[in-house]
Amino acid sequence: MGAIVMEKPNVRWNDVAGLEGAKEALKEAVILPIKFPHLFTGCTWNRQDVRLTLHYEKGFTVTREPADPAGGAVLFRYPYEKLKMSADDGIRNLYLDFGGPEGEMVFDLHSGPKPVVFVLHSFLSAKLTRMGLLT
To answer: What distance in Å separates the CA atoms of residue 121 and residue 13, rounded to the nearest whole number?
Structure first.
């Protein structure tokens, strides 16, 4: 059976050989939301409780809001390059359109969308600057 470790082990990510995909998934699902909660927001989409994650390199990930801390099922991922439109109502809704068959998606953030929009636009601006499209 599994064991629950109560003390903090002296193990670093580099101490674990291989398993890069598993380590990255663990960081994304557990570590990053604790260190950077402003990048992960619980919200409602299509009458489902979901978590919208903005990752600087990977783009958008929407997962089912997990009942347990191990993480929820990934509903979809889109890179920033697929984003055709983003908008908000200034109250609680974020609108995203990736040009797919689902059309414009409405995320009810349960609070003001401005922090999420600010992070999104900061990431997009940084990526465009890195590509040399903005100076």
So the answer is: 30
